Each structure stands twice: as structure tokens, then as C-alpha cells.
Amino acid sequence: MTCSCTSGSKGVSMDTVTGDVIASLGAEGATAAAHALSLPAEAYGNDAQLEVMWAMKAYNHAEVYFNLISAVDPKFLKLTKSDDQIYIKFREQFPDLSIQVLDPELLKSAEAKETWRPFCNQFDGIVEDFNYGTLLRIDCQKDYTEENTIFATRIQFYAIEIARNREGYNEVIHNAGSKANQQKKDKS
What we know:
It comes from Triplophysa rosa. This is Protein PBDC1. The chain is mainly alpha-helical. Helices cover about 55% and strands about 5% of the residues. The protein has a single domain (about 15-175), classed as yst0336 like domain (yst0336 like fold), CATH 1.10.3560.10. It has helices spanning about 15-40, 50-70, 85-95, 105-110, 110-120, 155-165, 170-185, and strands at about 135, 150-155.
């Protein structure tokens, strides 16, 4: 199965997969799944169905965020009640990290994980679900695609996306979204 996050891409649409999986669960199953997703990761082994649910939740989060920065000027977005603190701590810890196009090794290598761990853990109890898995765009000027997406913790996502919003890197996405919306209005 491939992740198809934009229309016109080849592969199976995550919307289709999400709908099929949720429909197969039924009302009781969906309620149980929602409860299961709220439990800590240590409560589970490797459960394929749970991994699919986590992937769906991460995809939905990414889709909502991308639609948001497409519609609203990112400079004015507030992603959490702690945006200022996250941004300040992020730029103190990672002053030279290039956020326009991320180097996945600077987030995923063993050395990077040791550097990120104290940064992430300081938000335990401050940012809800700070260590949940989230999808993050590598190149902020592009949409979520299989090639342009990595898995990161929620606090890494917030830190990088808050910085991208404040430093103007997500303007390209917003401008493209505004242009597309204007073209739709002009046609109608």
C-alpha cells in the first residue's frame, strides 16, 4: 500500500483506507479503538491493527494541519498554548537547524535522538501528547507525500512547524492555497 496524500497521486488513498478500517470496526470497535489510542505505548506490543490506527491518526493530523496553513496566514497561527515557549526553547537548542528542507538524519540518527530527547522531554506535562507519532514534511514548500514525509514526535512537529510559521517558510503553501481558492471563486 502506498500513501497518497494529494489528489492525482498514484496509490491507495489514505481517506479510502481510513474509511474502510473505521467501517470495519463498527461503533463498538471505533469506541474501543479511540480508548486504545489514548493508552501509553508501553501497554502494547506490535499489533498491526493498532499500527494502522496510529497511522490514520497521524495522517488525519497532517491533513488538518496542511489545510490550515493553506487557508490561514501561518504567521498568525497558534498551534498550542505554549507556542512561544516551544519556539524559544527550540531555537536555543537548535539555533542552526535548517527547517526549510530537513535532513532526516538530524532527527532520526542515534546521535540526533540523544540531542532531541531532553528537548522533547521538557514538554512532558506541558504539551498534550508531546511524544505521539506525527507526520512531518521534509521540504516545507511541498505537500505531504511518501517521499516528503518522515515520522517525528508531536513536539518535534510543533517545534519545527512553529518555527516555519514564524520565520515565513510556510508562506509558499499559504500563497498557493490562497491562489487556488481565488481561482475557484473566479470560476464560479
